Amino acid sequence: MTDDSKQKDQATRAAVLTSVEERSQDTTGTGRVRGKVCIVTGVGPAAGIGAQAARLLAREGAAALYLLDVSRDLPAFAKSLQSTFPNTKITAITGDAADDAVVSSAVQRALDETGRLDVYFANAGISHLKPKAEEGGPPQLILDVISGTRTAQDISAAEFSEVMRINALSVFLALKYAVPAMQRTSEDKKIPQGSVISTASVAGVNANGGPLPYSATKAAVINMTKSAAYEVAGKNVRINCICPGLIRTDMTKTIFELAAMAGVDENVGQLNPLQRHGLPEEIGQAVLWLASDESSYVNGHALVVDGGLTASMPYIPGASDKIKELAKF
Q1: Which residues lie within the region annotated Disordered (predicted)?
Q2: Residue 262 pLDDT greater than 90, yes or no
Q3: How far is CA 307 from the centre of its chain?
Q4: Rounded mean pLDDT of the chain?
């Protein structure tokens, strides 16, 4: 690949990312989830997948949104969202999405206040327990990198259990409480119906997508999705999950910060055919589709949104160009 061609490709990737970000700022919806009542967990970081999904659901006409997270910033985000989309009732619930009492209470609150529940997006999750930087020790950035590359021998059973609790138990609780609630009918909901959506990962599909505990939990989410779809057969409640590739979020910011420090930030995410990383808005669009009636026949499915990363055997950008050069020999 020539330098000129490489620069053009980089310019294209930058333009695409800018276009995605600009579209995400649009506040005009078309009513794709009009009247639906939704619960979204993992809405902590304002630039994260949960927050972007919540914004899209509000934009597209959700009657009510219940946002659940442990973050102290949640009320401020909810207030901002309510200001932008006044026709959607926004409720912030500060709590643990992997806590039985918190989840059952949130679901019951939605039923008590609106009479229905249509969408539950189980997005809460962590990749590892964040180490605490100590004075005179390695900077937080380096500690995060080390924590994300440890082997099973370096990880305590307690940490494995906590990652499993947050990532997998939270999805189990979503299924436990949301599915029965979605079967409830009311004057404005004549037939039982609902959509439970969970955030899995390509790390749950193939190896080397994340730390071992994280990968194990995401594989569990994928299996729970498929198993639960059959558990609720005939109930008109759909169970699906999304498997994001490399997305620029608070969870992956270390990768982007290190790449920027090394001056190779434009190379992040180039191992897929689109040769770029993804943005939370792009996962939010997948959530919106699964939440809407447009996906009414999609069930028990792990939707991969990764730029094509898992579509092939390992791919090295520019390899075909090298082969062509050798062919001229």
Answers
A1: 1-29
A2: no
A3: 15
A4: 90
Q: Is residue 22 part of a domain?
A: no
Distance CA 65, CA 33 (A): 11
Catalytic residue from among 66, 120, 177, 214: 214
CA nearest to 171, candidates 137, 112, 120: 120
Number of domains composing the chain: 1
> CA torsion, points 323, 327, 328, 329, in degrees to nearest 10?
110
The answer to whether position 224 is within a domain reads yes
Q: How far is CA 231 from CA 175, 213, 235, 256, 300, in A?
A: 10, 26, 9, 40, 10
Q: Which amino acid is at 142?
A: I
Contacts of 20 (CB under 8 A, 6+ apart): 279, 281, 282
Tell me: pLDDT of 309 over 80.
Answer: yes
Q: b or e along 111-123 (b: 16 or more beta carbons within 10 Å of the residue's beta carbon)?
A: beebebbbbbbbb
Q: Which CATH number belongs to the domain containing residue 208 in this structure?
A: 3.40.50.720
Outline where DSSP puts E strands in 245-293. Answer: none
Q: What is the pLDDT of residue 319?
A: 58
- In which domain, by residue range, is 88 found? 27-327
For residue 20, give both structure tokens. Answer: 């995605």
How many other CB atoms are there within 10 angstroms of residue 231's CB atom?
12
**pLDDT recorded at residue 328:** 57
**Residue 329 — very low, low, confident or very high, per pLDDT cuts 50/70/90?**
very low
Main-chain phi, psi angles of 133, to 5 degrees: -70, 135
Q: What value does the mean pLDDT take over residues 268-294?
A: 93
Q: Indicate if 297 belongs to the active site.
A: no
23 burial class (0-12, 13-18, 19+ CB within 10 angstroms)?
A: exposed
Determine the Cα–Cα distance for residues 251 and 45; give it in Å rounded to an integer: 9
> Is residue 265 assigned to a domain?
yes
- The label of the residue with tokens 């997998």 reads 168
Under the banding of pLDDT at 50, 70 and 90, the label for residue 177 is: very high
User: Rounded to the nearest 5 degrees, what angle is found at the Cα of 282, between the Cα atoms of 281 and 286?
Assistant: 110
Six-digit token pair at 238? 């759909």
Residue 19 lies in a domain: no
